[in-house]
Amino acid sequence: MKVKAFIFSVFFAAIMLLSACGDGSDGRIILEFDGGGGSGDYNSTISMVQSSANPYPYNTLEKLAEEWNKSNDKFKVVINKNSLRGMRSAVTSLLEAGNAPDMLFQVGSVINDDIANGWYVPLDTYLQKPNPYMQGNTQWADIYDSRELATTRASDGSHYYVCLDRVALGLLYNIEILNQAGIQDIPVTFSEFIECLETLKQAKANGTIQAEVFAHQGLWTELHLNASVYAGKIAEWDLDGDRMVSSYELAKAYKEGGWSYNDGEFEEFLRLCYEKGKYYPDNYLAYDVSYNFSRGRLAVTDGLGNNMRIAQSGLKDKLVVGGYPALDSAASEYASASVMRGSAGLSTAYWVTNSAKNKGQDAVDACVDFLMFLSAPQNNSRMVGDLGFAMPLNMQDNNVSLFDNLASQYLEDLNAGNSVMWGAVDTYSSFGLELSDYYQRAMGGFYQGPNEGDPSYIVAVMNNNIDSALNKLIANNNWDI
Amino acid sequence: MAAAAKKKPTWQQVLLIAIVCTLCIMVLYPFWLLIVKSFKDYDQELESFLSLTLPLHFENYLVAWDYVKGSILNSMFVSGMIAVTTVTLSAMGAYAFAMYSFKLKNLLFSACVSLMMIPSILTLSSKYILVTVNLKLFNNFAGVILPQSAGLLPFGLLLLRGYFASIPKELFEAADIDGANSVYKFVKIMIPLTMSMLTTLLLMNFMTSWNDYLWPLMVLRDDTLFTIPINLQSFTDRFYHMTNYYAPALAGYVIVSIPLLFLFGFTSKQFISGMTSGAFKM
Amino acid sequence: MQLKKNNIIKPIAWLVLPLAMMAMFLVYPAISAILNSFLEWSRGSSRFIWLDNYKSIFGDEIFLRSFKNMIILTVFGLICGNVATLFLAELLFNMKRQGLSKVFRYLFLIPSLVPGMVTILLWKNIVLSGTPEGLLNSILNVFGVQPQAWYFSEKLSKFSIIFTGFPWVGGISFLIYLAGLQSIPESCYEAAKLDGVTTIQRIIYIDLKLLVNQIKYFIIIGLIGSVQSFDLQLIITDGGPNYSTIVPGYILYLKTNGYSDIGEASAIGVVLFLITLAGMLAANRLSSGENS
Q1: From CA A175, how far away is CA A185, in angstroms rounded?
Q2: Interface probe with B: pick from A2, A10, A52, A94, most Cβ of B within 10 Å
Q3: How much is the pLDDT for B281?
Q4: Across-strand partners of A353?
Q5: ipTM rounded to 2 decimals
Q6: Chain B contact for C10, CB < 8 A?
Q7: Residue A159 has what DSSP assignment?
Q8: pTM
Q9: Calpha distance A79→A77 (Å, rounded)
Q10: Of A170, B133, B183, C26, whose CB has the highest number of CB atoms within 10 Å?
Q11: Which domains are assigned to chain C?
Q12: In the Cβ-directed half-sphere of C3, how many Cα atoms lie within 13 Å?
């Protein structure tokens, strides 16, 4: 017993000593970069040998870090081996204690909750400086479309994060099933989309196909429809001219009586949602969409870049990807402008945290420099393209054939200039997660169940909860409404 | 009982064994499924996601091994230390509550036990700041071992106090007559008598801390210090996010159950010897 | 033979280390959690609002509903879990073949090695899957019953949550009951046999009485666990459908992790703490009545 205790204590002491040592680096200050990624993960895989257990070998981010480290003698960027993946329960505590990685991956939407804590470095001054890694660049912000950049602003007007890729987003079709039902082309407008779903439903009813018709994998279609229906109101509600209706502008419009959930627009939005919801399989909440779509048991679904890659490994060339169907005037009297197709915009948000602040202004500058390095097209296209789960910041560099349609549609819409951005108007999830959750849960019963197809139920839920949500938001942000 | 072993089994015994067998199959099915699914590749998973498919894909195990091999020793050390610390301190505390009587004893005991009733999410943040900022134990094994041990203490106290109190006091009287002090009584009498329960508690604590993911992820930063769940959970989430199936991750879970299986076997022996050495024959 | 009364030095010496550890790592964070329940956090600073958080959570109809759900899930969960575990412990205890018993004891530990995620996935996608090919649905099909949505059916969701983990045996818990059973003195059994007591009577009158400590342990642990648990809600049901499976623990999680309502979350935490404390005191009261 005594011997065992002794051995234990020696072992313990040894480990404590070892763990307290530094990492034997060459005297440079370490800047930690937390990997992760919106659609696919940018951390290196354990080996570069491809196998079924390692289907996407990747180490480009690490290589880029090494390149940057070579030309910098004061700082060294280290990519964390295991990302926190933006897990809020861990991240908030780490930020409070000042232990978070210096460059952190986290979804952008949390900024309005965190503003008052002073955890992140505002990046506005840096966005106005030129990016040294891009030839001929006068402002770092130019790599992003101004409207896209506007979506990343916090409620106090500052930018606290930069995005490193664009998320691919669209509808996924099993073209084999569509062909069996007699459909040759994927739909482009909403009317065509509903027609396609109806044809599929008939084919299923008379036994031509066995697959289910449509089920959603993410709740993007509704966002798309919401922006489409309210597009005509943007001019009225947009106060700062960025052609986006931010939470503040929307809240102000609500409080001034500009809109409410009793309006015709919201009812139309719900009607359109139900139009496509009619085609969901029975017990759709219990339906495993990804599983069934990959096995050819579902005809149409929607998804992000990673959903598309997953479906492709199952369906191979039976998969065709297309942009969200544009709301045409035949489908709805409220249709005015179309919403951008192909991408919901920027994703994979990186923040410079208070850990870098504590290491000094140099450290913050170095972090920003690394982020500029990663967003420069020649590096960014390598970083994003080698993994192939999202689209690079410079869309022309997209090398994933699966996303070609989406990339070209997005560029088309961006250049035409009259399309509406994703999330330009969002009347159900702009006011905090709580209201959004009430909406989601109510919609569960709206598609199937006792309240099926009854918009008054949803309207009642929203009306009951909007005031408390708005008041909390206004108090937290100190808005003058 | 030696004479009884020669008799033919009664129908009650046969029924008993049949029921136990059925239950055993039902509870082992998930483990079987774990093993079967860990050998599949994506296409096999698509065709038949439940049944054994050939050929077996051992590369799942090779990849999973690469991810966890660096952290197995760390996990064994950390979990071992947590288990030993918790059991030792719980036994000491339970001894005090069971053998002595003092003012406010029951109140103190209830207060200790009630500490585990606060939902852990609420205390996460302040515990973290205490450990990493005030005690400066960031990136240090002690920052994992000490708080997790403290967290398991109330459970141990609750379990052991009742058990210790039920040990007949007569067994200590002989030692009292010899003038032994409490340390002697604790080490030479109490511990051997309760070894089976202590081993069970040790096993429980080892297993709880073996799978602990969130706290070590927050406290440890050097990848040489990572415990198994940090690597494995991270790999599982990443892999699933990008491929929508689990086979290499499941292979990882099978690999890391092997040390636990050995531990079960070892404690099984202790368990039995603890029971048979208990001087309960009267 | 008396316990040494009034000599407080000895017990304190034994208790100093455990108490110090608990005070530092458990009491101190718990106090800040309790304090938070009286505060309102807004724009990075807090102010005292006393019982307003409590008023608002008790005024929330969904919270009250979650209470009801929690009571149902806890009561049934505790009953099923403990009865099954005791049953298994008794079975193994009564097995005459010691070798076989040893083997089964080892085998029943193995399920605890299966990571929780695998079990939940297994139950969600296979056993209680809503599709007609799901295990239970296939069984029901034999009897001509329609396939059910299980977790996603308003009527059956609570049942599905309780039923997850059937047959509720395996893992370490039955070992503790077994250890308790094996420490019952032989003399008790000899005496019972002489009195002609049957096995069933022996189980009810002797085993259960002498296992009271272990049963109390599992009731308290089970109570704490059930009151705080929300993993099935998080992974499968999201409190639905139509709030039929929402529990206070899940609301607490949402308020800390998404809605950033630390004040109300802490208030819920304190309420749950008080409930489990009341439960524990009740269990103590009942069992000390039995201790003769």
Answers
A1: 9
A2: A52
A3: 33
A4: A120
A5: 0.88
A6: yes
A7: B
A8: 0.90
A9: 7
A10: A170
A11: 52-112+172-291 (1.10.3720.10)
A12: 17
